[in-house]
Amino acid sequence: MKLSIVIPAYNEEKNIKLIYKQIISALENFEFECIFVDDGSKDNTFEEIKILSEKDKRIKGISFSRNFGHQTALLAGLKESKNDIIITMDADGQHPPAVIPELIKEYKRGFDIVNTQRISTADASFFKKITSKWYYKIINTLTDIKIESASSDFRLMTRKTVDAFLQIDEKDRFTRGLIKWIGFNQSIINFKAPERMTGKSKYTFKKMFRFAIDGITSFSSKPLKFSIITGILSILVGFIYSIYILIMYFLGNTTPGWASMMLVILILGGFQLLSIGIIGEYIARIFNEAKNRPHYFIKEKC
Ligand code: UDP
Ligand code: MG
Question: pTM for the full model?
Fold first, then answer.
């Protein structure tokens, strides 16, 4: 059994060697190739990968022309992988290579895809834990796919499922959702995510927000319908309110209703902006698909 390990890395110069050591000790008894995808790092990440690839023929590296994002880096690594069993994981040690034999054990029980779920994350902030929990609740109600909370992109896939995954040419990719969508026999195991070995999280708030929006808009059109529902509700409320206003007018009770007017303007204005925003998200997706640009460019390989 030959393995391909796919590792996206963005500004992880100090972690490359550390994760490499963990991998070779965890996979002593396996034949494997390890593909690092340098996602346009600004530090020496690719130099570190090159040093390893010169010493160890099993190590390969791809370097992007710029930062295309974690999900795109995963795609590039999967495209590059040659072996029958493919494992994707992070470069920062939060997906411990020591768990890989457990993934393989699960595969041997007859599964095509083995997903993982974090039972704890050593350095996750309160904010990240809460937003992540609610995010999965929202995505599971809005979409037809079911994603377990605290899912991660630490996963084993067979060649057959990777080939299926690679047939999807979608641009703004939400890997977790696409994996569920392709089907096959899937299983999930738990693991404890330790602290990041060195450096800070590369998922900035902006990147997390983008990731969250992509997840929902690529698997559900319900937010679009939300605009219609809130629109109808606003009209109904407005209609009832206008009856009240008319009655007050005929009773001669009209006062300069500044407060109520402001409320209506604010609430309605808010809903309108929200609706336009939702439509905008979908139009942006159509726009990206229509442009049909390549997913990424490779600057260098080793
Ligand atoms: N990553 C990437 N491109 C990016 C951001 C992150 O390739 O634009 C990689 C990063 O180097 C790491 C993995 O994706 O290997 C997960 O990122 P990180 O550990 O920063 O996220 P967190 O664990 O904090 O959610
Ligand atoms: Mg991490």
Answer: 0.84
